[in-house]
Amino acid sequence: MEVFDVRLHLLWSDILIFLLVASLCAFIVTVVRNPLARKRWSQVFESRIGSASFLVILFYVLVALTDSVHFQKKLDQAGDSGEVHYAPEVTSLLDLALAPMLGRDEKTYSAPFAIHSFAKESMELPEGGVTRDYPRLEHGGSHLDDDSQHGADIVVKSMTVIGWTLVPVLILIFLHHSLMKKRSSRLPWPVIYFTFSAIVVVSSWALYMSQFYHVLGTDKVGQDVLYGAVKAVRTGVLIGTLATLVTLPLAVLLGISAGYFRGWIDDVVQYIYTTLNSIPGILLIAASVLLIDVYIETHPEQFKLLSDRADFKFVALCFILGMTSWTGLCRLLRAETLKLSQLEYVQAAHAFGVSRWRVIMRHILPNTTHLILIALVLDFSGFVLAEAVLSYIGVGVDPSMKSWGNMINEARAELAREPVVWWSVIAAFILMFVLVLAANLFSDRVRDAFDPRMSGSGDNK
Amino acid sequence: MKPLLQVNNLVIGAGGSCLVDDVSFEINAGEVFALVGESGSGKSLTSLAIMRLLGEGLSIRGGDVQLGSDSLFALSETQMNAVRGRRVAMVFQEPQSSLNPVQTIGKQIGEVLILHRGNAPDTAIIELLNEVGIPNPEERLNWYPHQLSGGQKQRVMIAMALACEPELLIADEPTTALDVTIQKQILELLNELRRSRELAVLLITHDMGVVAEMADRIAVMRHGKILEQAERSQFFVNPSHEYSRQLIHALPQPDDYLEYETHSPLLDVQDVKVWFPERRGVLQRVVGYTKAVNGVSFTIGRGETLALVGESGSGKSTVGRAILRLEDTAGGTIRFDGDEIGQLNQRRFASYRKRIQVIFQDPFSSMNPRMTVRDIIEEGMLSLGLGGTDESRETRIRELLERVGLEAGHLNRYPHEFSGGQRQRIAIARAIAVEPELIICDEPTSALDVSIRGQVLQLLQELQEEMGLSYLFITHDLSIIPHLAHRVAVMRNGQLVEQGETRQVMTAPVHEYTQHLLQAVPRIPEHA
């Protein structure tokens, strides 16, 4: 059983991401049980933008999840001591899926779909003598017998794979559609079908084509850019969600209690966030990251594998980012709570002797959700982008970890080159852009659906 | 004589609906024409259409407006700008938000003058301020809006409107946000100005009292249509349309007093003080107190209504909040049913929460917009442990809703789906859900239209009879007091100036301030 010769190796961030998914499932169960909440959420999915952006986010999350099941492969027995050795690097399920892109490294840069290298090299001619030309890539387009078929080959292969994926997708859609005819549903199925088939077709096309070419080119050391960009999805999704989840309880708890209880609690909270805000954020993050580095250096026994170190640093970075950026939302929530607690419905609740905890949970928190949601998404996008900035000054995620920030940072120097090396930046940009846009659109719909004053205003487009 | 303003068959629409339908009227120079109607009747839209200032999504579908010899709808935007301010000026309801808080009033009036006349000498501004009755205009020229009282701000707004000597003044609910005494002054000012300047006034209001005092001719609007137009004398004596009759009759009869009987005391308030500390400096030292309520004493009997009357800022709402223990008292005793409750902590006071309830003024902010009607009514019952099992509580909530005149099917709706009057009914249902003995009504009707106001007051009175409720009715509206309250207490600057049986206080007020207040109330001629 060759396949099972692996050892599961869970990283800290893997555990966190699965805890997150578990709590998300629990949340969905409570939503389904509560008829009112179900109605609200179904409103989100009944809007075209809502369901399309949800599918896109779901796809990203799925990629991140498959990339979060890590294991070590068993090494071939070197000696006969009977000891089983495992590979020092960890592999994820995603790596298996992306197998065609692995082990096909070129020497250096090459453009998307190119069959020649991007840089000229001195080559010895068979009949003697040296010429300087673009060398043929070792893997990209290596199946071609005749280089002149290059263009035609790309078109033919693309058509074939798109055709072959569309057929099962269309059959699936048709089956589902005929099944759904009997049940009434208000979901915008055409949009869902379209988004679904777009995602499936694009991903299988990229996967198939990367058997033959480097779809998004290669980077400085000749690695496939598409592989890096897809691996970076996990980093992006995780840094966004984890850091946001760290800021959220801090901001909500401190902001609402400062605004509601006032007095010395307010003084203390204000003191904390004013102090925190007066320290330059980057400095604080850099200092904390260096502390983490020192910790890793002094405790090598806790980090057996290279990826353990990278992962520890990554999780720490999420927490540091979260701890240093809750002040904005906290301040907003404090102000909003100050305003809300003066409103007559809060006074009426006090007159009914409703406990303070219940007043906060029923009257104040629900009426600040729009602020929280907006801040959440802006923070999410902000953290994904902050990661890029931090990688730039060298305190971001570990360079061995694939991330959009690292990709942009590496490609930065090459942007000045002529002809320009654009594919690394573009790949990171597109993947980041799609994620951030989908998150923004989705949260927009959620906010609309949960604001009772908005519903029924014909906004369900 | 040709009328100054002629509105012919005006139609305003938004999307598929018609908001103002075929409205025609005319106003002569020196005449006050009142456009009366409840909220949403299209009266403000009509005035905005005359100025061509309709908001986005609204459009003029037909008709025409003649000002003097010009057809306003035929003018270009530039020509129209010359009409606005110079020939037609507007005064709005809320002087607070109509003035720019960071500019002196002199500068703001000057701006209008410069726009339309090219120069703004201080003397012209001072003259204007003088005309609208601002004392010491030379000095107040350099004041900022926040240094003026509400009435003075409205005077400044009128001065700005008059700055370019318009022919027509559109006054959109000019006194609604003001106290009665101030309202009287402003109305007198408007009356004087129209006489001295031969000014035509289009007065938009929902207050029949104001109409009776001011208007020469009256048009009643409902659902975008003018139902009736008549001279004042004709209108009040013999209204031709059923709706006009309703509006006039919705006004409480001025001498329909409740019989006063003695009641066993329920609430006894003695010498209560509520002082808000003023803090200064880094250490937040208390340097003084704002004495919002300074020694107020009264009693309310079982099944009795005490009206607490006063102008804004007199501390009447603070008294209510102190009784509810939403505000700490600085002195005095509050006895409820014989027990001292003024100094109880929140936990010990909890058992009295069930017995003392409150209804607030603004039906839009008194309910959490994210809770359904069921949650809103249920909240108090749950918190105070009433209503038993889920089923019995559910039936109780349904009964309550039906009792206050709503349908049980409304339970799952949200507050924003209801009109102001319906929301106030929900608030009443919420308060009586815990079967209180005393309800503090903090201006429960001042945000409602006249006809709705009558219905809500009616409901409160029915509930009083059924449940033996006592009310502390906090209001600035003197006209509703006679047939509502058994006794009246008049408050001013944190102190009671007079209290007694309603009939006695209303007909033979002893204190000068009470007399002053009563005189300021606009009167309607006796109607048949």
From TrEMBL, chain A:
It is a multi-pass membrane protein. Residues 233-443 form the ABC transmembrane type-1 domain. This is Peptide/nickel transport system permease protein. It is found in: Cell membrane. It comes from Thalassolituus maritimus. Keywords: Cell membrane, Membrane, Peptide transport, Protein transport, Transmembrane, Transmembrane helix, Transport. GO terms for cellular component: plasma membrane. Belongs to the binding-protein-dependent transport system permease family. One of its GO terms (biological process) is protein transport. Its main location: membrane. Coiled coil: none annotated. InterPro entries: BP-dependent_transpt_permease (IPR050366), MetI-like (IPR000515), MetI-like_sf (IPR035906).
TrEMBL record, chain B:
CDD domains: ABC_NikE_OppD_transporters. NCBIfam families: PRK10419.1, PRK11308.1. It comes from Thalassolituus maritimus. PROSITE patterns: ABC_TRANSPORTER_1, ABC_TRANSPORTER_2, PROKAR_LIPOPROTEIN. This is Peptide/nickel transport system ATP-binding protein. GO terms for molecular function: ATP binding; ATP hydrolysis activity. One of its GO terms (biological process) is transmembrane transport. Belongs to the ABC transporter superfamily. Residues 5-248, 267-518 form the ABC transporter domain. InterPro entries: AAA+_ATPase, ABC_transp_ATP-bind, ABC_transporter-like_ATP-bd, ABC_transporter-like_CS, Oligopep_ABC_C, P-loop_NTPase. Keywords: ATP-binding, Nucleotide-binding, Transport. SUPFAM superfamilies: P-loop containing nucleoside triphosphate hydrolases (SSF52540).
